[in-house]
Amino acid sequence: MDNASTLTATWSVQLREQIQARPLTALGLLVALVAVLLLLLQSLVMLLAGDISPGARYGLLGGVAGFAATALGALPALFLRSVPQRVEDGMLGFAAGMMLAASAFSLLLPGLEAAEGITGDGFLAAAVVVTGMTLGVLLMLGLDQFTPHEHDKTGPCGPGHESCSRVWLFVFAIALHNLPEGMAIGVSFSQGDMAVGLPLTTAIALQDIPEGLAVALAMCAAGFRPSVAVLVAIGSGLLEPLGALLGVGLASGMAIAYPIGLGLAAGAMLFVVSHEVIPETHRNGHQTYATLGLMAGFALMMTLDTALG
User: Residue 186's closest CA among 103, 248, 267?
Assistant: First the structure.
């Protein structure tokens, strides 16, 4: 108990130091969290007043599909000790391309259409979606700055990372990737619109397969046993159904919450792609493979959106 108290006190001190060093980021995270909680609260009130909507069921099933795809991708790490670095960078580039295209075609464009239907004005519609994007970026930026986690190439970061085991640091890092994906699935299904939710969920599930393998192999390369790496990668996929429920709650209340939620999910995913995934693929000298993978992923997602949307 004393050791736990000491760790908590140490983390609290380091968190205060981080807040003092980055007051604007901390303020942005606070604003984003308050906005998310308000959207979630008004949605919960409306859900409690009636039956669970079909969108909530679809969103949960979509989140489970993302979890299953992550688990499927992680399993080969039990017998694959490594893959060529250029192949891994190409796989992550493919995942980044699918996330970029999903953000554009399955989140931002439907968000703009829904917002214009509500406001009756193109400029106001863009302002609504951009507000959601800003909240998503502020949320992910704050979580990245104030959550202890570890990256394969850059090492541990965030307040209190010295007090956490490396397994937990990797878990937090993976959670920062999977949470916005789950939220995007939930938001896209929140209105029960299969034309929006189905292509997005298909794309996220497809890119979760190489992403799950890359995460498990990165943990193996960092010294973890294959069984531990696979279990952690599979467990991280649970953030997708949880994020999906959060996304449904965020966007299934007031009408204006839907385009804001779509913008929020898009902003969060774009932040992860630009801040984490693309730089990771360009650190090893295989930018061409990563870029070709990104283009392939983007093209596949565009095709899926056209065929299934």
Answer: 248
pLDDT of residue 2: 47
pTM above 0.90, yes or no: no
pLDDT digits (tens, 9 = 90+) for 126-167: 999 999 999 888 888 877 776 665 555 555 455 444 545 555
How far apart, in Å, are the Cα atoms of 243 and each of 120, 128, 298? Answer: 31, 22, 23
CA distance 219 to 173: 12
